[in-house]
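Key result, reporting period 2: structure in, sequence out.
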């Protein structure tokens, strides 16, 4: 009987630890839309790091999961393009940060629309999908507040033929 109690205790501890890890450290997320295509495709399963942004602010190029201001029950996944305090604009399929063009090698489709100069408030980030022609992003609902960020997407773990790390691309301006 003592061995059974030990196993039950081990199982309970393991379940509690896994719940704590999911709530505070890393969480799985399923990609459902085409807005991040080719980087992410529908039904990709990714891991979202929930700790990084407690240690440092988001960086340009990070792929993030957040609660959008236009739908508080949903979670979107996009790439951070503009940082707090910057001015962003889009002209002829090119993003400009403070008047300098942004290098974005991950793009595979045109943006289809321009965006006038938009100042990003402190504590907010401008996010866009990699598949700009179909992405509902900050061009529609405005910059995203830091407090709305769930975390940084770090790893695709399913399907097996798409396993990869999701490193941020800084998109340095010349």
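The corresponding designed sequence is given below.
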């Amino acid at each position: 009987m003592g061995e059974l109690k030990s196993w039950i205790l081990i199982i309970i501890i393991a379940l509690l630890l896994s719940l704590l890890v999911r709530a505070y450290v890393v969480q799985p997320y399923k990609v459902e839309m085409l807005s991040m295509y080719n980087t992410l495709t529908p039904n990709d399963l990714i891991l979202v790091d929930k700790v990084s942004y407690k240690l440092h602010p988001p960086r340009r190029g990070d792929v993030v999961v957040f609660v959008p201001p236009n739908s508080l029950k949903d979670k979107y996944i996009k790439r951070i393009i503009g940082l707090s305090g910057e001015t962003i604009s889009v002209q002829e399929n090119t993003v400009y940060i403070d008047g300098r063009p942004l290098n974005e090698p991950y793009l595979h489709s045109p943006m289809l629309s321009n965006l006038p100069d938009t100042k990003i408030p402190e504590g907010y980030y401008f996010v866009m999908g990699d598949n700009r022609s179909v992405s509902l992003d900050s061009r529609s609902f405005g910059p995203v507040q830091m407090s709305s960020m769930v975390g940084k997407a770090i790893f695709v773990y399913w399907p097996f033929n798409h396993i990869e790390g999701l490193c941020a691309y800084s998109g340095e301006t010349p």
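The chain has one domain: 26-165. The chain has a mean pLDDT of 88. This case is discussed further under Risks and Mitigation.
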